Amino acid sequence: MDTIVLKFGGSSLADNEKLKMVAEKIIGLYQKNHNIVVVVSAQGKTTDKLISEAKELSSITQDREMDVLLSTGEQISTAKLSMLLNQMGYRAVSLTGWQAGIYTNNTNQNATIKWIDTARIKRELEKRNIVIIAGFQGMNENKDITTLGRGGSDTTAVAISAALGAKNCYIFSDVDGVYTTDPNKIENAKKLPAVSYEEMLEISSEGAKVLHNRCVEIGEKFKVPIITKSTFNNRPGTVISDIIEENTVKSIVKKEVSRISVIGNGIIRNFSIIKKILEIVEENKLEMLEFNVTESKISVTFKTEVNDEILKKIHEII
Predict the structure, then answer these.
(1) Distance (Å, rounded) from C-alpha 294 to C-alpha 317?
(2) Same domain membership, residue 145 and residue 45
(3) Among 38, 157, 194, 288, which is disulfide-ready with 7 (CB 3.0 to 4.6 Å)?
């Protein structure tokens, strides 16, 4: 029986109605005779709220205690989702990061996973339980709670997929895949059916918030196919895998300050794209501080912040 890992982000778990939608997706896949492991984030803006409340109490950095506090958000999600699934007639068990055997280094708030003892997870799967695991957290050698940094639930999900040899790792959010650019800013942004690990790493490192870059690194290392999908519809998502295909532009990312990056395999050999970007820079009298070209990325840093209209122009010509 195949094992698949599903990760649901905070926006997918924000309230009871959304939790029910998540539960129905899980049940649908469970009924197809899969072993199901679910990794969850904290609900909605819970983590931001906890950070704000902590700052009101103390101005002194207390990294260990912050990890104890922040880990509670994901634990609330696991318990609620497990309760709901059991109420719906499907056996589920919630596990914290440390109960799931996730061991990390000693760094607080940006810990890295050292290894995963999958024994408890496997025992629960053998009972045909749906296993709900708190993302974003683990335990160090002192048995202290650690957290993996913002976006760390993605990393938890892919790391567990690798440890279990899962068939696929699905990352569910309010976005139904990876787009050629931000669909909230550019109307004709197109969804990509497939992206390579290398391209996704570049897209993530440039500030796109689809996937945590560390989870992509783990996916590439252990060859875990990552599929990004929407919680709120059934449309096909984007598959991130070790694909080899024709050289083509995949995505254009604008950072909040003043950098635009064009990403795609073999982009260093696509001279026409480089020429078109420079023409836009000249036509709009933009001052460049830096123009870098690598095997899979063109990155332009401007002296002042550029507006989304420039992003749109580059997206249209490419």
Answers:
(1) 20
(2) yes
(3) 157
